[in-house]
Amino acid sequence: MGVRVGSLVSRIVGAAVLAFVLLVASTALAIWWTARQDSRPSSDAIVVLGSAQYNGVPSSIFEARLEHARKLFEAGVAPVIVTVGGKADGDEFTEAEAGRDYLAETGVPAEALLAVPEGVDTLESIRAVAAEFTEHGWASAVLVTDPWHAMRAERMADDAGLDAASSPTRQGPAVQTRTTQFKYILRETAAYLLYRATGESVAGAPGIG
User: Fold this and answer.
1) Which InterPro entries does the entry mention (predicted)?
2) Which fold has domain 34-198?
3) 167 Cβ partners below 8 Å, 6+ apart?
4) Is 39 exposed, middle or buried (0-12, 13-18, 19+ CB in 10 A)?
C-alpha cells in the first residue's frame, strides 16, 4: 500500500513539475512571439513607457523608445504622444518630463505631447495612463517599449480598460546581443507569470518593473 501511495505521489509531483515547465516555456515563447510583432493601428495616442533618465537626459533604452514613438507620430499613427513615469528619490526630473522634453527638442509640437509623471513600475504607469485616457475621452493606444516587455505591458493595459496594441523598439541595449535578449526574456517570463498570479508588478531593471 505504501509503495502505491509513494508511486502516486511521485506521479503527481512529476505531473506538477512538467506542467510548470510547460507553462514557463509557453510563456517565454509567447513573449518572444509578441516581441516580433509590430502593431500600429490608428489610435488616440502613442504611449511611451518610461525608463531611466539622468538629470533630465533619457537613458539609451529610454531614448530608443522615444525615437520609435516619434517615428510613429510622424507616420500618423496617433495625434498625441504620452510619456509616462515618475522619479526615484533624489531625482529632479520624472521619466515622463524627461521624455516629453526630449521629444519637444526633436521637433514634436508641444500640443502633441502629454506627460504623465506617475508610476514607479509598469503597472502604476499603465494605471495612471488609463486615468488620463478616461479624462480625455480616449480609448485606444499604441504602446512603445522594449520587445520583451511588450506582452506584459499589453496585458496590463487591457486589464486597465485600454484598447492597446504594441509597437516595440528595434534598437537599443535590450536587443543588442542574443545573450541580452535571452536574459530579458527570462526576466519578463518571471514578471509576467507573477503578474498573472498576483495582479501585482515587480520592481527591477528598466523595462522590467
Assistant:
1) Cell_Envelope_Assoc, DUF218, Rossmann-like_a/b/a_fold
2) Rossmann fold (3.40.50)
3) 38, 39, 40, 46, 68, 72, 77, 142, 143, 144
4) middle
User: What angle, rounded to 10 degrees, do the helices at 2-35 and 150-159 form?
Assistant: 100
Q: How far apart are CA 207 and CA 151, in angstroms?
A: 12
Q: 100, 108 in Cβ contact below 8 A? A: no
Neighbours of 151 (CB within 10 A): 22
Predicted pLDDT at 202: 62
- Would you state the pLDDT for residue 6? 61
| CA torsion, ordered 147, 148, 152, 157, to nearest 10 deg | -10
Q: Which three cell numbers stand for residue 188?
A: 519578463
What is the value of pTM for the model shown? 0.85
Radius of gyration of the chain (CA): 19
Domain boundaries, the chain: 34-198
Q: Which three cell numbers stand for residue 196?
A: 498573472
For 95-124, b/e burial (b = at least 16 CB within 10 A) is bbbbbbbbbeeeebeeeebbbbbbbbbbbb
- In angstroms, the CA 19 to CA 74 distance is 45
Q: Average pLDDT per run of 10 along the chain, which is 209 residues long?
A: 64 80 87 88 95 89 95 97 89 92 96 94 95 96 94 95 93 68 88 89 51
